[in-house]
Amino acid sequence: MKKVGEGAEAKIYEIEIFGNKAILKRREEKKYRAKELDRKLRKERTKAEARTMARLSSSLKVPKIIAAGQYSIIMERLEGRLLKDADITSAQIAEAGKMLGKMHEMNIAHGDFTPANLMSCKNGLYVIDFGLSEMTNSFEERALDILLMKRSIPAALYPSFEKSYSESFNGHLTVLGRLKEIEKRGRYQIRTLG
């Protein structure tokens, strides 16, 4: 078992199952939380993440789940590069917009939709890391998904993302309207000195 990543909630390991490489995502105990609360949160979040991945697997490219436990998920290991580490193309960004539109159509907000959670593989783009995702019909949460991507990619690529998103989600006008409202709020405005 080799550790290959770590987030705020989980550690990611590369493991081998029956001679095949796989990924183990394990939510670790948080010592600062009360034990019962910690167990409950880790269990609920793991279950929700696995459920979201399973639900999306018939519509989008996401890692296939091999097994899920109380605090961990074992999934296929993808061969590719994170989009954040690649020269992002307009076609990839358009595909990302289409994928997010499909997720939103299914009432799923990713929670961290950025090039760091998109993987470019031989057979296309995959969405990964559903640790912050939630089932919701909130236009605010959907708009925040778009805001995160907008701030994570070059401005010249954003129109391709927005166009393909709009073509994939019937509620796009409401979401894009909410995005404009969010961007006007003080804490979301980019501040400069001078």
Walk me through this protein's architecture.
It contains 5 helices and 10 strands, in the order βββαβββαββββααα. The protein has 194 residues and is α+β, with helices and mostly antiparallel strands. The chain folds into 2 domains: 2-76, Phosphorylase Kinase, domain 1 (2-Layer Sandwich), CATH 3.30.200.20; 80-188, Transferase(Phosphotransferase) domain 1 (Transferase(Phosphotransferase), domain 1), CATH 1.10.510.10. Helix 2 packs parallel to helix 4 (158-168) and helix 3 (139-152) packs across helix 5 (172-184). The termini are far apart.
Gist?
The protein has 194 residues and is of the alpha+beta class.
Structural class, by secondary structure, is alpha+beta
Order of helices and strands: EEEHEEEHEEEEHHH
- The CA-CA distance between the termini, in Å, is 51 Å
Report the sheet-strand fraction: 15-25%
Percent range of helical residues:
25-40%
Number of strands: 10
CATH architecture descriptor name of the largest domain? Orthogonal Bundle
Mean pLDDT: 93
**How would you characterize the largest beta sheet?**
5 strands, antiparallel
The CATH homology group name of the largest domain = Transferase(Phosphotransferase) domain 1
Continuous helix count: 5
How many domains? The number is 2
CATH topology of the largest domain: Transferase(Phosphotransferase), domain 1
Unreliable residue stretches: none
- Large-scale geometry: globular
Key phrases:
3-stranded antiparallel β-sheet; Phosphorylase Kinase, domain 1; globular
Topology overview:
Layout: E1 2-6, E2 10-17, E3 20-27, H1 35-56, E4 65-68, E5 72-76, E6 80-82, H2 90-105, E7 108-109, E8 118-121, E9 124-127, E10 134-135, H3 139-152, H4 158-168, H5 172-184
Antiparallel strand pairs: 1-2, 2-3, 3-5, 4-5, 6-8, 7-10, 8-9
